[in-house]
Amino acid sequence: MNYIDKLKLELGESKVSDAEEHRAAFARDESGIPELYLPDVVVHPESTEDVSKVAKIAYDYGIPITPRGAGTSLSGGPLAVNGGILVVFDRMTSIKDIDTENLVVTTEPGVITQTLQKEVEKVGMFYPPDPASLDQCTIGGNVATDAGGPRALKYGVTKHYLLELEVVLPNGEVMRVGKKTKKWVAGYDLPMLFSQSEGTLGFITEISLRLIPLPEYVQTFLVPFDDEVAASKVVSEIIARKFLPRALEFIDKSSIDAAGDEMPPNIPSDARAILLVELDGREDAVMVEAEQIAEIFEKHNAMDIIASMDDKDREKIWTARRDLLHALEATGKKVRIEDITVPRSRIPEAVEAVYRIQDEVGLTLAVFGHAGDGNIHVNILHDEDQIELVDKVVHRLCEVAVELDGTITGEHGIGILKKPHLHLEQPQPLIDLQKNIKNVFDPKGIMNPGKKLP
Ligand SMILES: Cc1cc2nc3c(=O)[nH]c(=O)nc-3n(C[C@H](O)[C@H](O)[C@H](O)COP(=O)(O)OP(=O)(O)OC[C@H]3O[C@@H](n4cnc5c(N)ncnc54)[C@H](O)[C@@H]3O)c2cc1C
Predict the structure, then answer these.
(1) Other CB atoms closer than 10 Å to residue 154's CB: what's the count?
(2) Does one domain contain both 226 and 186?
(3) What are phi and psi of 208, to 5 degrees?
(4) Is the CB of 195 under 6 A from ligand 1?
(5) What is the CATH number for 36?
(6) What's the average model confidence in pLDDT over 276-282?
(7) Where does a domain end: 162, 188, 213?
(8) What is the mean pLDDT of residues 341-370?
(9) Which ligand 1 atom is at minimum distance from the Cα of 144?
(10) Domain range spanning residue 400?
């Protein structure tokens, strides 16, 4: 029997499709990679047992298997580059338990991040990691990429909330790694290994995450500047003076222009950059901190300090920020988004280098991102016939990141797009060590092959 018939027999036809139209719906992610990667078959498991059955069949037949959450990857991670079986987690969407005594949520991997956040907030709890794709991406995808977001500055990224995982190994074996307790040091930290593994070690089928109490008060400011580098210096100074906003985002002129009417109307038309700054905590403490940070804005000649008036106002600002990538795409240009990260004191150097490259190559590089983390997204606007030039810009940006003691990717992962650049950051023996680790989990090389390691 061929493996697709075996999948249909063991899982039931309603969970398995090899219809071309269905497979085509999963041939892309959000990376803008022009090639279509059609899986040979798409499986929608409804339980860990289903995932284990799929892995066992793939293992026996030696077929590639690729996990997929919502497909919002910006690096090609969930694409079935070698065909085979694509496992989509869109039917494993239940939040199994919110434990308010121990501050732990346990969930299936297909739950949308924003849904999980809203559910825990109903009982006064807070799950901070907030990738800008939070209304689409899944918690499973977030763990597999160690997603960050604006609030990472104060609250950390997905891995800082990871307690226990249930995983299905590429041979179908089911294991639990980690513990739901606040502390544990027995054995190696395998949840951390699965974090940012980009689906190359196994399937994540259940996730337990640490929660914290919901902050009492939040205040958001938009601060326009007439100079990009001045704005980036404010970011470095806020960090150096030991303030800890929960978000500190940089948005440049090209991005402001692309956002158009989505941006609040009171942004001066000659602003060349905006900082989006959000503070949280006890109301009185937030007020004091806001006054002190305002002194830094004024010292660097901020054009204005625009405070959000209420939750609705704040949500409007964040919607505009989260839509920036799509706003740039709506300009009619193709967009390749890069996410280099540098030490925060070196952000002004990174921003200057980006604009130098822009002048050299003659493509528009729109910059926004989680500047408070040193993580800037450089969006390369281009036409379809300029891919070679785009690849050169990407390589140059990766070099800049490494020259400034940073990293070639702060959150979007290696996937397939960044593989050619990993050697800039990591020596061959380190890459070989990681290949050996993968080999232990996946001796047949069937688990999301062609990703992460060159
Ligand atoms: C508009 C936009 C804004 C974004 N903003 C951010 C941001 O602020 N911060 C950030 O970090 N990222 C951001 N991203 C990138 C992306 O949303 C994240 O990487 C996200 O974590 C991917 O989740 P997903 O469910 O879409 O996973 P997918 O894209 O489907 O998959 C991502 C990777 O995880 C693997 N995977 C998925 N589910 C599982 C599973 N259950 N078990 C094992 N492996 C699995 C896949 O194989 C793949 O390698 C953004 C993307 C877009 C389009």
Answers:
(1) 18
(2) no
(3) -110, 125
(4) no
(5) 3.30.43.10
(6) 96
(7) 213
(8) 93
(9) 34
(10) 333-424
Which pLDDT value is given to residue 406?
97
Does residue 328 belong to any structural domain of this protein?
Answer: no
pTM value is: 0.96
Whether pLDDT at 371 is above 90: no
Answer whether residue 372 shows pLDDT above 90.
no
Pairing label, strands 104-107, 273-281: unpaired
In a domain, 440, yes or no: no
User: What residue type is 199 in one-letter code?
Assistant: G
Burial string for 111-145 (b: 16+ CB within 10 Å, else e) reads: bbbebbbebbeeeebbbbbbbbbbebbbbbbbbbb
| Two tokens, residue 217 | 């008060």
Count up the domains in the chain and report the number: 4
Residue at a domain's end among 163, 191, 213: 213
> Residue 71: CB within 6 Å of ligand 1?
yes
CB atoms within 10 A of CB 61: 16
User: Residue 431: which H helix or E strand, with range?
Assistant: helix 428-441
Q: Is residue 436 domain-resident?
A: no
Ligand 1: atom nearest CA of 323 is 1
* pLDDT of 160 higher than 90: yes
CA 229 to centroid of ligand 1, rounded, Å: 30
Question: At 236, is the pLDDT very low, low, confident or very high (cuts 50, 70, 90)?
Answer: confident
220, pLDDT greater than 90: yes
Same domain, 253 and 199: no
Check pLDDT > 90 for residue 309. Answer: no
> Is the CB–ligand 1 distance for residue 168 below 6 Å?
no
Phi, psi dihedral angles at 98 (to 5 degrees): -115, 105
Residues 300, 397: one domain? no
Name which of 121, 127, 182, 179 is nearest 152 in CA terms: 127
Give the pLDDT confidence of 53-101 residue by residue, as tens digits. 999 999 999 999 999 999 999 999 999 999 999 999 999 999 999 999 9
Atom of ligand 1 nearest to the CA of 410: 11
66 touches ligand 1 (CB under 6 Å): yes
In the DSSP assignment, the letter for residue 104 is E
Compare 370 and 57 and report the one with higher pLDDT: 57
- Residue 266 pLDDT exceeds 90: no
Residues 288 and 313 in one domain: yes
CA of 197 to the centre of ligand 1 (A): 11
Atom of ligand 1 lying closest to residue 452 CA = 49
Q: Give a yes or no: residue 272 inside a domain.
A: yes
Q: What CATH number is attached to the domain comprising 246? A: 3.30.70.3450
